[in-house]
Design goal:
- With about 375 residues, the protein is an alpha+beta fold.
- The protein is built from 7 helices and 17 strands.
- An 8-stranded mixed sheet has the order 2-1-3-11-12-13-14-15, with helices on both faces. It has a 7-stranded mixed sheet with strand order 4-9-10-8-5-17-16, covered by helices on one side.
- The radius of gyration is 21 Å and the shape is globular.
């Protein structure tokens, strides 16, 4: 081996060793400084936090994760939140259920207005939004939601800006915040990354995860996942059930793969690490309070198999989850899933778990289930 080749080999070993030290999924609570948009300071442990309208942040605690996520966060806009829907939507009563739906809308590829109308019974085309008779109140968990924002810093390139998704499909369509407001929904949108660089006349956009609902939301939570290929932020909020029990709903979007070196060294445990971090972030939010009796999670986990480690981890953490129905949601892959758990003292169940057949322009099919009050929790 020549001296030059030896130097290259040692450099590669050094990079690999440094990367191998970065596989912890430890999470911490963090604070966003006044006037800021990115979590910057560790908040430490706390007890008995109240229901709040202020976003509570959790993040992966490793220095590498904090550094990379901060770089990506610096080029997106601030979260958008309005926790109150229009007052005349149907309430969640004991006689009906709460529909919870998860959908990767592929940024501008998915037609969100058509989806709300066809799948959830929400008509937004008239003078005032309304729910069709017989429609349940709902929570919609979105991944790859997008927003136009003229106030974003101009970015023409860089490692912390991913490529643009569907730059032409979104032309003329309102973004997720516009739709939520026009349709009278409560919403929480937290951007994870820019949607491409600023070139030509295309408006600046960011993209991330969102919760849209026809019922009031509270206690918004953001969970910055362990950083692999890019910044991913899970989003959660709380809904009050007909009998006063808190129901936490949460959405996440995992990476397909990490960098080549990290993929090799970890045995491609990218999604397993993000699953561990997401679970720990949700558990930390539970410990910090207020206590929730029910937790429903939906997302695009980018899994290639229903028995992947990330899915096994989620099922262990959510033992009341419905079984996979054998249906793929992106091409031939079972990428999208929903998970459920309840505490022993709550009298709720789920039914109707299924794939939604019309993709409404996205490259993913949505999934849905219904949370109902009154089932025997011992069954």
């Amino acid at each position: 081996m020549t001296a030059r080749h030896a130097r290259k080999f040692l450099a590669l070993v050094g990079v690999a060793a440094a990367s191998a030290c970065g596989f912890s999924h430890e999470m911490e609570r963090a604070l966003v400084p006044p006037g800021g948009q990115c979590p910057a300071t560790s908040a430490g442990r706390t007890d008995a936090l109240p229901d709040t309208t202020v976003i509570r942040w959790y993040r992966a605690a490793q220095d590498r994760d904090i550094r990379l996520s901060s770089d990506w966060c610096s080029v997106v806009g601030s979260p958008a939140v309005d926790l109150r829907p229009v007052p005349d939507f149907p309430r969640w009563e004991q006689e009906n259920g709460l529909d919870v739906v998860t959908w990767n809308m592929e940024v501008g590829g998915g037609d969100l207005l058509a989806f709300l109308d066809a799948e959830l019974g929400l008509e937004c085309s008239g003078a005032r939004p309304r729910m069709r008779a017989g429609s349940n109140p709902f929570v919609l968990l979105l991944q790859e939601a997008w927003r136009r924002d003229s106030g974003l810093p101009r970015i023409e390139g860089g490692r912390n800006v991913p490529w643009t998704i569907d730059p032409d499909a979104a032309a003329g369509r309102p973004d997720v915040v516009q739709i939520a407001e026009e349709c009278g929904l409560s919403y929480l949108y937290i951007p994870s990354a820019r949607n491409g660089t600023d070139r030509g006349s295309r408006p600046s956009e960011d993209m991330g995860a969102a919760v849209l609902a026809s019922v009031p939301l509270s206690t918004p939570v953001a969970i910055e996942l362990p950083h692999e290929a890019g910044r991913k932020v899970g989003v959660a909020a709380t809904v009050l059930s007909p009998v006063g029990a808190r129901v936490r709903v949460a959405t996440a979007h995992f990476d397909v793969a990490s960098t080549l070196i990290r993929t090799i060294l970890s045995g491609n445990q990218t999604r397993a690490r993000q699953a561990d971090g997401f679970i720990d972030g949700l558990d930390a939010a539970e410990r910090d309070g207020p206590l929730t009796g029910i937790l429903v999670v939906g997302g695009d986990f980018n899994t290639w198999s229903s028995t992947e480690t990330a899915i096994d981890l989620m099922r262990d953490a959510f033992p009341d989850s419905p079984p996979w129905d054998g249906e793929a949601t992106r091409g031939s892959f079972p990428a999208d899933h929903m998970f459920f758990r309840r505490r022993s003292f709550v009298n709720f169940s789920i039914d109707g778990y299924r794939r939604i057949e019309n993709a409404h322009g996205s490259d993913h099919h949505a999934r849905r289930l219904t949370v109902r009050y009154g089932a025997d929790p011992t069954n």
